[in-house]
Recover the amino acids of this structure.
């Protein structure tokens, strides 16, 4: 923790001024809660270091990404969430990836060792490559899985692929199959109702894989 | 010839220390009362599995208290939880390492059918990769349901024919 860490979280304006001093392209970003800033992706590690060393944001709580749309450009944004264990403020940094087909962002493992697994997860599920990451392997899906499941063009039910183990595939004849959606994803209901009704279930049971969803009237 | 013996019960004084039965019946009886489970605890259902093993529900009453974490020493894999595609091959390998005869209980909605996880990551029923003997409904099933499944499995074991023949020809 830096000795110069302020006792209270700086205001959004002050943070913006600080960031713009070092990175003229920094801009605020609409936010529902904590201050959020947009930066060119190449400036992110330096900006995070600045926030960590001068503003007391010493804890990287999350690294994630957004896929705006298959057609959108820029398609992917990477998001870093910082927290301060001294003044308990939060700040969010967002950067658009330059490429829509081969998105990448600089790794911040050098600043926080904990970024390692966050970045591996973001790579696994969103396909963002973190340059200079020491060990960028998939973390949830298995090595060799061909897709990035949280991308917008990936169906929730999945895409048929072989099982991770060829031998077991041969013995059992099993493959990774698209899951039957049977009327949409399972979602739980909330509100005043008995638990049976609140259980996760398909919201639209008028269709399933055998009898297709009727076309909209 | 008429004998004076009117007793219908087995009488050791007359017949000696001999019980006449079928080998199949004895072997099945022995097996069904000492099912050593392989706890394949993969998600929340495993908590109920543990409750089933502890004092309140006490699976020991049915001869299955000896949970074995080595597949070599187990006869019944209890798949308690969500089987992801990533885990599925390991599960099958553990099943393959269990010695015959072996059984599988699919405990809960996830193990039986994928449950509420209709997604790219979840195997839609463990019966796609191992043969299942008893399915338990519920999310999670109560420990009583697990005990009921075990009793059903015991019944299935005692109904099994050809046990001795298989043993002798193996
Ligand atoms: S059936 Fe329900 S309780 Fe059991 S593993 Fe699945 S989600 Fe958890």
């Amino acid at each position: 923790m830096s000795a110069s860490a302020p006792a209270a979280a700086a205001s959004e304006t002050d943070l913006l001024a600080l960031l713009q001093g070092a990175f003229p392209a920094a801009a605020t970003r609409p936010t529902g809660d904590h201050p959020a800033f947009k930066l060119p992706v190449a400036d992110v590690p330096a900006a995070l270091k600045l926030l960590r060393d001068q503003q007391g944001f010493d804890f990287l709580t999350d690294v994630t990404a957004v896929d705006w749309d298959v057609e959108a450009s820029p398609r992917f944004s990477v998001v870093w969430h910082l927290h301060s264990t001294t003044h308990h403020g939060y700040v969010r940094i967002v950067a658009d990836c330059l490429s829509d087909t081969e998105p990448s962002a600089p790794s911040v493992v050098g600043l926080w060792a904990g970024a390692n697994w966050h970045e591996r997860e973001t790579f696994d599920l969103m396909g963002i490559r973190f340059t200079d990451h020491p060990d960028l392997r998939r973390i949830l899906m298995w090595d060799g899985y061909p897709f990035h499941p949280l991308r917008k063009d990936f169906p929730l039910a999945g895409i048929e692929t072989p099982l991770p183990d060829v031998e077991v595939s041969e013995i059992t004849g099993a493959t990774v199959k698209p899951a039957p959606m049977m009327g949409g994803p399972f979602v739980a209901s909330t509100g005043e109702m008995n638990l049976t009704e609140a259980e996760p279930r398909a919201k639209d049971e008028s269709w399933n894989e055998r009898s297709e969803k009727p076309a909209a009237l | 010839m008429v004998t004076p013996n009117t007793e219908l019960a087995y009488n050791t004084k007359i017949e000696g220390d001999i019980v006449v039965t079928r080998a199949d019946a004895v072997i099945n009886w022995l097996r069904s009362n000492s099912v050593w489970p392989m706890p394949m605890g993969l998600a929340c259902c495993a908590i109920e599995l543990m409750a089933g093993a502890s004092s309140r529900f006490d699976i020991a009453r049915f001869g299955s208290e000896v949970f074995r974490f080595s597949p070599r020493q187990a006869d019944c894999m209890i798949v308690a939880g969500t089987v992801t595609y990533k885990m599925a091959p390991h599960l099958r390998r553990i099943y393959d390492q269990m010695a015959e005869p072996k059984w599988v209980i699919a405990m809960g909605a996830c193990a039986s059918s994928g449950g509420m996880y209709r997604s790219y990551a979840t195997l839609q029923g463990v019966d796609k990769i191992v043969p299942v003997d008893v399915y338990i409904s519920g999310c999670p099933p109560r420990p009583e349901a697990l005990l009921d499944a075990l009793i059903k499995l015991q019944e299935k074991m005692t109904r099994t024919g050809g046990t001795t023949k298989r043993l002798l020809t193996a």
User: Anything to note?
Assistant: The interface with chain B takes residues 140-142, 147, 149, 154-159, 163-165, 167-168, 171-172, 174, 176-182, 185-186, 199-200 of chain A (CB under 8 Å). The CA atoms of residues 55 and 61 of chain A lie 16 Å apart. The helical segments of chain A are 12-22, 44-55, 115-126, 166-172, 195-198.
